[in-house]
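On clarity, I found the account of how folds are encoded harder to follow than it need be. What matters is that the chain and its backbone geometry are given together, residue for residue. I therefore recommend that a typical entry be quoted early in the introduction. An entry of this sort, consisting of the sequence and the corresponding backbone structure tokens, reads as follows:
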Amino acid sequence: MGSAMFGAIESGIIYAIMALGVYLSFRILDFPDLTVDGSFVTGAAIAAILIVNGTNPFFATLVAIAAGFLAGCVTGLLHTKGKINPLLAGILMMIALYSINLRIMGRSNVPLLNEESIFTKIEGFFETSGLDSVLNNMASSIGLGNLTSTWAILISMLVVTTVIKILTDLFLRTQIGLALRATGDNKRMIRSFSANTDGLTIIGLGLSNALVALAGALIAQYSSFADVGMGIGMIIIGLASVIIGEAIFGTRTIAVTTFAVIGGAIVYRIVVSLALRVDFLETGDMKLITAVIVIAALVLPQLIDGQKERNRKKRKRLRQEVKLKEMKEGEEGYASTKSNSQSI
């Protein structure tokens, strides 16, 4: 159970990078970008094929990020210059990327079992430096037992995701970032200020898909394979992470919201991991579980808000009734006193 939760948190932190990308397109730009399903695989495919051919895994991951950026820019160009509906532009790019990804890999699946990846390098550093032994001893001393053979993935991905979160926060506070946020809120108004909304949309989608491709490249190295079908439903997972995080942690500021997105991705993975431990559910039910989680994340906050509103109205009505009753009793008391004084 403990190791399963540890694995869920590990993968949740990696998928959080993808969720941050979805947050940029879905919340900041208000653009339903289905390119994500394809660019995630593009990142995985490019990283895998380069690593298999002897390229340094860090360089392979950088190339995957660049490819994801390019894919997002093409979707932006289809929408802004080609005047194609955002949803349709994303779908078209997603379909095109399926064939492109097959071309990149040359087959539907590229295994990385015996290849050197980013994680094998970091694991090697943790093992030789003795960090794993120190951390395992610390975990045992507080009663957590032997959770994992290596802490390399958890700690390294926590650092990488935190750096990306901070960079995203800083970027969204820059002049371009503020213009990007304003474009998502009201494109016509920003265009009236002579801002190049087309360029901002293209840049925003490029950055979004660059993060998604980075997550794809890391997941391929984490899972030791890249598969042409691994991106199916990825947009739903990203949306689920964003919605769950916002519902749990709130959206008071940009920094809180990006933290919420990361938290949502981890919570989502933990919930899925727990759900798969139920006897009557199987691995093939993953998409069904995802759909149920998203529905719950969408419906429950509304039900809670509705209940809070009904309770607020009920308290207000009770206060008004008490006030009216007190006024009525006061008027009756005054009338009784006046009547007594007149009779005297």
User: Anything to note?
Assistant: Residues 286-343 form the longest helix (58 residues). The CA atoms of residues 171 and 177 lie 5 Å apart.
